[in-house]
Amino acid sequence: MRQDIPRIEAIDAIDYRVEPRSWRFTIDEAEAIDRHWDKLSAGNPHLFNGRVFLMHRMAIELQDDRRVLRGDGFEVEYKAFLAWRDFGFPDPETANCFAMAALLSADGAFMLGRMGGHTANPGRIYFPAGTPDLDDVKEDLIDLEGSVLRELAEETGIAPNEVAVEPGWTVVFEGPRVACMKIVRSSLSAAEIQARFEAFIAAEASPELDALLAVFSERDFDKERMPDFTLRYLRHALAGR
Fold first, then answer.
1. Counting CB atoms within 10 angstroms of each CB, which of 44, 70, 94, 128 has the fewest?
2. Rounded distance between C-alpha atoms, residue 112 and residue 117, angstroms
3. Average per-residue pLDDT in the chain?
4. Smallest Cα–Cα separation from 6: which of 236, 168, 241, 167?
5. Do the Cβ atoms of 181 and 229 come closer than 8 Å?
6. Residues 146 and 138 sit within 8 Å (Cβ to Cβ)
7. In angstroms, rounded to a whole number, what is the distance separating the alpha carbons of residues 86 and 80?
8. Three-class secondary structure of residue 142 per DSSP
9. In sequence order, which residues have a C-beta less than 8 Å from that of residue 3 and are 6 or more positions away?
């Protein structure tokens, strides 16, 4: 069961396994989910009803002196995920566990993306990320580190071989959200990363991000558009320097 008291945990590894499961929410709220999707997609035809994974049976366990976050992931339609989110996250046994690329520039800035107007979170600012989907599955595992590198490349144009991936995770638990932050270091300065990003999105027909913003200190926070879990992580990371 998820815990609704926000906290940050240092985790050595994540063991997130696919488990086929029917979700009571999609059965009980089928008509409401469809109505909500019709309304959302009418206002934003760019939305795509793919398949994503949500987590249940989540726990942190100690294994050979390593802290491991374990959970089972079940597959749902994106429209059901959005309805669950927008209806206030019913079902306390379920969590949205996702990985984020905490991109760190050579001159010490965290680089966060601003979501484009055609996305499900227009204007929101957070690290490159995505709710895990079928592309993140390797056999029966949901590969969150692979998700980090895939989302980073898809959203910013920065390839996996252009960053150094740090071991371990910093996980922000905030009610139904479990944000798994993985630091990826670039050899480029913040200004150089932004220039690379601008060139990348100029060639994209419909880029997911419309800006990449540098956060050197709390003065750079946008408290209106950065989610609480993002602000919580940034304060934690900056304080640890």
1. 44
2. 16
3. 96
4. 236
5. no
6. yes
7. 10
8. strand
9. 173
Stated pTM of the model: 0.95
Q: What is the CA radius of gyration of the chain?
A: 18
- Using CA atoms, how far residue 191 sits from 12, 109, 150, 187, in Å, is 31, 10, 22, 12
Residue 23: both structure tokens together: 């979700």
Q: Which amino acid is at 71?
A: G
14, 95 Cβ separation under 8 angstroms? no
Q: Which two tokens stand for residue 238?
A: 């900056």
Break the chain into its structural domains and give their ranges. 7-239
Fold adopted by 7-239:
Nucleoside Triphosphate Pyrophosphohydrolase (3.90.79)
SS3 sequence of 145-180: HHHHHHHHHHHHCCCHHHEEECCCEEEEEECCEEEE
